[in-house]
Specification:
Potassium Channel Kv1.1, Chain A, four-stranded mixed beta sheet, 37% helix, BTB domain-containing protein
């Protein structure tokens, strides 16, 4: 049997950071008024950072008396100090660090190719510094826009923006976005706002990108080259604009003056639409959104349609009910276990649960119009097998479901409750339990039982899985 002594090993290596006798690297960081010098060991830097391993082996460094001199002016001393502590000790205390420092540390860990630290910092900002990230969303996006591996944090910021898009797109902050971020924003399924508003502010954004236009007081002063520059900037965004959803009045007043920036073939199609059939007004249907790490926004309408007992692909209109989803529990943040779920998700309130498992791509979930547990006593119908703590509750609206993956809109399955008095089973041994075992959570495990008679048998599987992520939302009708 092998014996391991990791704690002693880490302790001894961490002491090397203060051992001035064996340093062979001097690293100069920062610049001007904010400079610093650090001593380190090349062998440890190479072992912990692919960047240093490559730098020291490719003669990027200056050697003098067997001492390596290395310059990193783009990393501030306080940031590099945290990097070194992580490299030598595997420890990092971010609790007292301002958000700006954590963001700088994220950039440094990406440049130095320290994968573990990079992923941890992304998760930390999303899970522990949500308020700061939301208050500084544009700064964060601009800072990470060139980091290919930072999609998780970028997606979090864009989801936050899209959850309340109108105030943002009409703000000065919108004009600060660069082309890459704006393109990612326009590609999103949850980017939903009136087309004319998008076009108006997209033109304002484009004008800001051309310094010469900023010096001209009105459009009458523009020349052919100005229009051509504007057309080139907008070329990647014009395909996203659904011109036929703009009223004829708005088109005449707000779009026609910019005819020169719209490709001829697109403009001809628009005019054909207005000449043949154009509604007097257009009211967009803003789909409700779920701020989820588990499913893509395109699945939201399907779940809403199921709640309203409509077909999954029903096209919603302005007459349909509006919903809001308030996140109350996320496993990666609150802990994946029965107690945590029950504490966060108690009460008689319409609720949705989403579950991602780690063995397959499938997404599972369930909706309960009466919540999952701790329901008021007056809803108790009967106890099961004489145990007063094991109680069933009534609902005719509950259902469980599955998607093939986080954006599947073709092969979803739904199982509606058929034994109304046994819609939900409440017992402390479960986080939640639909029926008597159709779909239930037992700490980190999710159980799917297609043989249970309380719900329809459409999931076509009997299995249990390890829960990778789980979320629960209160469903509010507006």
């Amino acid at each position: 049997m092998n014996s391991t002594f990791h704690s002693g090993l880490v302790k001894d290596i961490s002491l090397l950071l203060k051992d001035s006798n064996n340093f062979n690297v001097t690293i100069h960081v920062g610049e001007n008024e904010n400079e610093g010098e650090f001593k380190a060991h090349s062998i440890i830097l190479c072992a912990r950072s692919l960047y240093f391993k490559s730098a020291f082996s490719n003669e990027w460094v200056i050697m003098n008396n067997n001492m390596i001199t290395f310059n990193k002016p783009n990393i501030a001393p306080n940031i590099f100090e945290m990097v070194l502590k992580y490299i030598y000790t595997g420890e990092l205390d971010l609790t007292k660090q301002p958000g700006e420092n954590i963001l700088e540390l994220l950039i440094a860990s990406d440049e130095l190719l320290i994968e573990e630290l990079f992923e941890h910092l992304q998760d930390y900002l999303i899970e522990k510094r949500q308020i700061w990230v939301k208050q500084n969303c544009v700064v964060v996006l601009l800072t990470i826009s060139k980091l290919i591996r930072c999609k998780k944090l970028q997606d979090y910021c864009l989801r936050f923006i899209c959850a309340d898009i109108r105030p943002f797109i009409t703000s000065k902050e919108f004009l600060l976005l660069n082309k890459d971020i704006l393109h990612e924003l326009f590609k999103r399924d949850d980017f939903q706002i009136e087309v004319i508003v998008v076009l108006e502010f997209l033109i304002k954004w484009s004008i800001k990108q051309i310094p010469e236009l900023g010096k001209k007081n009105n459009q009458d002063e523009w020349n052919i080259e100005n229009y051509e520059d504007l057309k080139n900037i907008l070329s990647d965004f014009i395909p996203f604009i659904k011109f036929t959803e703009i009223t004829s009045e708005d088109f005449h007043i707000k779009v026609r003056p910019y005819k020169a920036i719209i490709p001829n073939n697109i403009y001809e199609k628009i005019m054909t639409n207005y000449l043949i059939e154009q509604p007097k007004s257009y009211t967009p249907i803003i789909a409700p959104q779920i701020d989820s790490n588990i499913i893509k926004s395109k699945l939201t309408n399907i779940i809403i349609n199921w709640i309203d007992k409509k077909h999954a692909k029903y096209i919603r209109t302005k007459e349909d009910k509006l919903y809001k989803f308030d996140l109350i529990y996320r496993g990666s943040r609150d802990g994946i276990n029965n107690e945590s779920f029950r504490n966060k998700c108690e009460g008689q309130v319409a609720s949705l649960v989403l579950i991602k498992v780690n063995q397959i791509n499938k997404i599972f979930g369930g909706y309960s119009s009466i919540g999952f547990n701790s329901i008021k006593n007056d809803l108790l119908l009967f106890d099961y097998d004489g145990y007063t703590s094991l109680s069933f509750y009534y609902s005719s609206d509950n259902f469980i479901f599955s998607f093939e993956n986080n954006e599947d809109i073709q092969n979803m399955k739904i199982c509606r409750v058929i034994d109304y008095p046994k819609a939900i089973l409440n017992h402390y041994t479960y986080g939640f339990n639909f029926g008597h075992g159709s779909l239930y959570m037992k700490n980190r495990s999710l159980y799917v039982n297609n043989e249970c008679d309380n719900y329809e048998k459409n999931l076509n599987m009997n299995n249990n899985f390890i829960i990778e992520e789980i979320e629960s939302y209160i469903v509010v009708k507006q």
